[in-house]
Amino acid sequence: MPREKRGSSAWRAILLLAALVVAAGCTSNNGGSEAEGSEGNASNPPASDSVNGSGAQQGEGAAGKNVTVSMMNTYFSETAPSDEGEVVRSIEQFSKAELDITWVPQNVYAERLNVTMASGDMPQVLMVDNPFHTSILNGVRSGMFWELDGYLDEFPNLQTFDPALTANLQIEGKTYVIPRPRPLVRNGLIIRKDWLDNVGMELPRTIDDFYELLVAFKDDDPDGNGQDDTYGMMLYEGSIPRDIFSWFGAPNNWKLEDGAFVKDIETAEFREGLRFVRRLYKEGLINADFPVVVRNEARRDLYNDRVGVSMEALDAVVPFYYFQMNTTGNRFELVAGHPVEGKANATSGHYGGAMIPKTSVRTEEELREVLRYFDTQRSAEATEQFRVLVTENETREDDAKFNIDDLKNIIVNEVAMYPPGDSELNQMLRARMEEHADVSVADPSLGLLSPTQIEQGQQLNELLSDAIVQFVLGEIDEGGLDTAVEQWRSRGGGKVAEELAALYGEQRS
Amino acid sequence: MPDRSLGGRVFDAVNIVLLLLMGLVTLVPFVHVIASSFASVAEYNRTDFLLIPTEFSLKAYTYIFTTDALPRSLAVTVMITVIGTAINLLCTSLLAYALSRRRVHFRKTIMFLIVFTLIFQGGLIPDYLIVREAGLLNSYWALLIPRAIIPFYLIILINFFRNLPVELEESARMDGCGDLRLLFQIVMPLSKPALATLTLFYAVFHWNTYMHAILYLTDTAKWPIQVLLRQIVLVSQAGFVEQGVVEGEQSIPPDTVRMAVITVATFPILLVYPFLQKHFAKGILLGSVKG
Amino acid sequence: MRTETRSAIWRDMRRDRWIYLLMLPGLLYFLVFKYLPMGGVVIAFQNYHPFTGFWGSPWVGWTHFERLFADPDFFRLLRNTLLLSLYNLGLGFPAPILVALMLNELRVQWFKRSIQTMIYIPHFMSWVVVVAMFFVIFESQDSIFQSLLAGLGFEPHSIMMDRGWFRPMYILQALWRDTGWGTIIYLAALAGISPELYESSRIDGASRLRQIWHITLPGIRSTIVVLLLLRLSDVLELSFEHVFLLLNAVNREVGDVFDTYVYRVGLINGQLSYSTAVGLFKGVVGLALVLLANWLAKKFGEEGIF
After folding, report:
1. Hey, are the CB atoms on B15 and C117 less than 8 Å from each other?
2. Mind telling me which residue stretches traverse the membrane in this protein (chain C) (predicted)?
3. Residues of C numbered 40-59 whose beta carbons fall under 8 angstroms of chain A's beta carbons: which are they?
4. Is this complex's ipTM strictly greater than 0.90?
5. Which of C33, C181, C230 to mutate against chain B (most B CBs within 10 Å)?
6. Is residue B136 part of a domain?
7. Do C249 and A465 touch (CB under 8 A)?
8. Other chains touching A, judged by 3 or more CB pairs under 8 Å
9. A317/B130 touch (CB, cutoff 8 Å), yes or no
10. What would the pLDDT profile of A408-427 be if each residue is shown by its tens digit?
11. Residue from C183, C184, C212 to probe the interface with B (highest B Cβ count within 10 Å)
12. B74 and B31 housed in the same domain
C-alpha cells in the first residue's frame, strides 16, 4: 500500500545527510562518533524475523519450534515487566512462543500508537484497551487490521469466549479483536466486617438496609473509639458508581424502549437514585470532598478507621486493600456485599484485546501463526499451567509476588480474571462477583458504534456527570438537571440516541 | 559600602523578612516530601501534613532500590543531561553569536523565522518520522540531536550577546581577531552569567526528558528516570478508570515510595544551581575587562 | 541600484564568511528538525489518520476551524483562556522581576544564594505533586487551612470547589511554583550591570528605590522586553497539566480552556486533525500578538526580537 515514507529516496538521502551534518557539527567537540545503530530497527519491520517459526502450518506437529510474536502493550507496574521476569517467561512457556514486547506507559499509549501507525513499524500484535477509539476505528475502516472471522474456526480455543463478550467487541458486525476477558460485573460494595459486627447489622439487601448501614457507621461509633469521627461511604474523583442507580431500577446507561434509546438520566428511576445520593451527601454519610479528592487521598480514610463502605471493583481493589494493610499495620477484615435490591450493572466484560495489523503480518500463514499463539495460550493445558501459577503466586509473601495485573494485561485467557486461589477471601470475592453477574443488566448500547458518541462522547458524558455531581452537592436543583439534559440532547445526545436506535434496528433485521 | 541611612535599613529589613517568608513557603512542601519518604507508611497515613518523621524508616528506599531500574535510569538521565547540555551550549552559542552581530545580513529575517518555530510546531508524528528517517530511532542521539537548540533559549542568549559592548568586538577585530576566537575568547567568557543560566535551563530540560524517550526508544532499559517517576506518580492518580474498566489498581505503590522516588529523581538536578551560582556574582563582567 | 546593493551584500558575506559558516549547523538544524516537521500542520485541513498518512488522508478544507468556531463552548473557552492568560501576564510575569530586584538588594552573599536556592525548588515538583499537596494543606477536612477556619469560627470552605477561587488558586499555585525559577534569568541580566554605575549614583546621594528605578531596571530592560515578547507568543498556551488537575465537576464552567478542550476532543477521542486545527488557531493569535508587540517595542526605541 502507498505510504509517504516510501517516497523518493533522494528526499530521504537529503534528510539523512542534513541530519548527519547537524550531528557532526554539534558533536565534534565531544569526540562522539556517529549515532550508534543509526540503521537500527527503523527500516526493517520487526515482523520479518517471525517467519522462521513457520514451516509447519498444520497441526500440532510444530511443537518444540517456538514462534516469535512481537507485541505492543501497556504496563501498570513501576517499571515494564522484564523479558526475563517470571510473568513474561511463564507466558512464553505456556503459550509456546517467544515474546518481543514493546512496552509503553499507559498514559502515552495513544501517542505511541499514533506514531507507530504513521511510521508503519508495526508489531504483529497491538494490545488495545479501547478498540472503539476513533483512531483504531478509522484504522479498521481503512483496512489496517486483519478481520478474523474467516480464520477463527481453525482454532478451537479461540471459539470458547463468552459469546456476549465477543458480540460486544465486534466492529460493524465483524471480529477484529481477540479479547482480554474480564468479569462481567466488577463493582460491588466493600464493607468493613468488624464495623458491621460492631453495629450488629447484616450485609445490606435493600436500599433501606444500605441507608441504615451508612447511618449506623456514621452515628453508632463503629470503631468504638468514643468519638464521632466516622462516616458511611467513601467516594472520590467526582465519580458516583452507577450501580447505585440500578438499585432503583434505572437502566444501565441506556434504556431500550420500543426500539428507541432513552438515556439513564432521563428516567424517573435514575432521578430517584440521584435524590438518594444527594440525601446521603446532605446527611454527611459520604465524604464532602468527593468531587475533588483523588483516590489515594480518599483511601487514607479507610486505612485510618474513618470510613467503612466503598463501592469499587471487588477483584482489583480488595486484594489491594489487604496488601496496603500489610504496610500500614492497621488490619481489619473486609467483606463484599450482595447485589442490593438484587440488581447490578454489567460492564462490557473485556479490557480490549489483541488486534493484528496487516502491515506487519502480511500473509495468511503469518496470521495463522499469531493466532496459533493465542490459541495455545487458551488451551486446556496452558490454562491449567496459568491456574497453578496464579494460585501459587497468591500464597507467596508480598515481596515475592509478581503483579497479577501484569499477567492479565498480556494474556487473552479468563484464568486470572477472578481473584485466584483457595483463600477464604478470594473464594468469597469470586462468589459475590458471580452473584452480581447473575443478576446484572447489560448496557444495550454496547456493540453499537454511534459516530456522534465516538466523536463527542467524552464531552457529552462530562456534561451529564458534571450536572450529576452539582445536583448531589445541591448546587443545582431538578430544574437545573433538566436544563443540563436538554443541553446534552441538543449538543449531540439526541443524535446519539437516534443513531443507536438506527443501528439497533439494522442489527435486528 | 553598605547603605547606612535609616531608609536604607528599613528597606533592608523589610526586604529580608519578605524573602525569608518566601523561602519558607517554598521550602516547607519540599521538606514534607523528604520527610514523608523517610516515614513509615503507618505514620504517613496518620499524619495530615508530615514534616518530621518520628518513626524513621528506610523501607521506601530499600523498596525502590531492590531492582536496578532506578539507579540505571538515573544514570541514563545524568548522561543525557551532561552530553545534551554540552551539545546545546555549543550549538546555541554558535548561532546566537552570529545572529547577535549587526553586520550579519538577514539576521532579522532569520530571527523571525526562529520565533515562528516557537509558535508553530508540526507535532509528534512528523517529528517522529523525521527522527526515524534520520535513522536515530532507539539511539540516545534521538534525544540529543533533534533537540540541539531550543528556540526560546536561543533568543535569550542572542539578547545577552547583543548587550555586550560593541567597542570590545571592534577593538578585537582591529587586532585581527577572527570570529571563532572572538566568540570563544571574548564573547563567551564575558557572558558567563548568561551561559550559566542556559546551562541550568538546558540541564533541567534534559533532566525532564519523558515523552521523547518513550516514543524514540523502544528498549525500556534506555529510559530515563522521569518515565519511572511519572509512572509511579500517575498510576495513583485519576485517569485509569474508564467506562467501568478498572485496571492496574494493584500496582499502586504506597505514598512513601512515591515521595522517595520524587526525592531521588529531584535531588541531583537541584544541586546544579548552587554550583552555577558563583558565575552569577556581580562585577566579574565588565569591570575586570575594561580595566 | 538594486544589483549594487545585492553585490554589496554579497561582498559583505564573503568578507564575513566565517560568521555565516558558524550559523550553518544551527540553520540546518532549524530546517530539518523544525521546518520539515512543520509541514505536519497540513493535517488541520485533512481528516488525517496516521495509517493513511499525510498523502492518503482526505482534504476537508476549513471544516475543523468551522467546527471550532461553531462550538457552543468556543466563547467560554476563549474567555477562560484569556482570563487565565491575563492573570499569568499581569502577575506571573512581573513577579520574578520583583523578586529578582529584591534579591539583588541583598548584600550578604551566602544569604542571597540560600534564598535563591530555596525559592527555585518548587519548580522541580510536577503539577501532580503540587496539586496533591495543595489538597492536603487546604482541602482535606483536617488540613491546616480548614482547622484554621474552624479555629476562627468559620464554616469549612472548599477552595477547589469554589468557582470564584479557581483563577486566584491557579495563579497562586503558579506563582508559588515558578516565581523563583523565573528570577534566575533576571539575576543573570543583573550581573551584567556595572557596579560603577551604583557607586557614582550613591555619591550623588540617590536613595535605594531611585537606584533601582534609574539603574537596575534600565539595565535589565531589554531582557524584560524579550521575555515579554516570547511570553506573548504562546499567550493562549497554559500549562495543561496544571489546569487539568484543578478541573472538577463544579468549576469547569470557569476552568475549561483550549488545552483541556483539545485533550478532551483530541486525545481521548483521537481527533488529531481537529486538535491540530485548534493549535493552529492559538498559534495565529500568538503570532499576531508577537508581531504587534515587536512593532510597538521598536516604536518605543527597543530593539525587539526581529
Report:
1. no
2. 20-45, 86-106, 118-138, 170-191, 212-230, 272-297
3. 49-56
4. yes
5. C33
6. yes
7. yes
8. B, C
9. no
10. 999 999 999 999 988 999 99
11. C184
12. no
Cβ atoms of A214 and A277 closer than 8 Å: no
Work out the angle between the directed axes of helices A207-219 and A268-282 (0-180°, nearest 10): 10
Q: C293 touching B, CB under 8 A?
A: no
**Which long-range contacts link B175-184 to residues 24+ away (Cβ below 8 Å)?**
B178/C18, B179/B97, B179/B98, B179/C16, B179/C18, B179/C19, B179/C22, B180/C18, B180/C22, B183/B93, B183/B94, B183/B97, B183/C22
According to CATH, the superfamily of the domain at A46-182+350-416 is Periplasmic binding protein-like II (3.40.190.10)
Predicted confidence (pLDDT) at residue A31 exceeds the cutoff of 90: no
Q: Do residue B49 and residue B190 come from a single domain?
A: no
Q: Please tell me if residue C70 touches chain A, with a CB cutoff of 8 Å.
A: no
What fold is seen in the domain A187-251+263-345+424-443? D-Maltodextrin-Binding Protein; domain 2 (3.40.190)
Residue at C25: amino acid letter: P
B118: which residues sit within 8 A by CB, 6+ positions away?
B151, B152, B155, C230, C233, C234
Question: b/e map of A170-200 (b: 16 or more CB within 10 Å)?
Answer: bbeeebbbbbbbbbbbbbbbbbbebbbebbe
Domain A46-182+350-416 shares a fold with domain A187-251+263-345+424-443? yes
Closest of B262, B259, B264 to residue B47, by C-alpha = B259
Specify the number of domains making up chain B: 2
Both B35 and B88 in one domain: the answer is no
Judgement on whether residues B35 and B140 belong to the same structural domain of the protein: no
Task: Enumerate the domain spans of chain A.
Answer: 46-182+350-416, 187-251+263-345+424-443, 448-509
* pTM recorded for the entire structure: 0.89
Q: CB contact, 8 Å: C22 with chain A? A: no
* B123/B256 same-domain check: yes
Domain span including residue B19: 6-57
Look up the CATH number of the domain holding residue B126.
Answer: 1.10.3720.10
Percentage of residues in chain B having pLDDT higher than 90: 60
**Complete DSSP assignment for chain B:** ----SHHHHHHHHHHHHHHHHHHHHHHHHHHHHHHHHTB-HHHHHH-SS-SS-SSB--HHHHHHTSSSHHHHHHHHHHHHHHHHHHHHHHHHHHHHHHHH-TTSTTHHHHHHHHHHHHH----HHHHHHHHHHTT-TTSTHHHHGGGS--HHHHHHHHHHHHTS-HHHHHHHHHTT--HHHIIIIIIHHHTHHHHHHHHHHHHHHHHT--HHHHHH---GGG--HHHHHHHHHHHTSTTSEETTEE-SGGGPPPHHHHHHHHHHHHHHHHTHHHHHGGGG-TTTTHHHHH-
- Amino acid found at C75: F
Residue B159 maps to a domain: yes
Check if the beta carbon of residue A342 is closer than 8 Å to that of residue A439.
yes
Which domains, ranges and CATH numbers included, belong to chain C?
1-42 (no CATH), 46-299 (1.10.3720.10)
Query: Over its length of 306 residues, how does chain C's per-residue pLDDT go in tens digits?
Result: 456 688 888 888 888 888 899 899 999 999 999 999 999 999 999 999 998 899 889 999 999 999 999 999 999 999 999 999 999 999 999 999 999 999 999 989 899 999 999 999 999 999 999 999 999 999 988 889 999 999 999 988 999 999 999 999 999 999 999 999 999 999 999 988 888 888 888 888 888 888 899 999 998 999 999 999 999 998 888 889 999 999 999 999 999 999 999 888 876 777 889 999 999 999 999 999 999 999 999 998 888 888
B261 shares a domain with B153: yes
Q: Which of B80-89, B233-242, C261-270 has the lowest mean pLDDT?
A: B233-242
What are the percentages of helix, strand and coil residues in chain A, rounded to 5?
A: 50, 15, 35
Contact residues, chain C, for B11 at CB < 8 Å: 105, 208-209
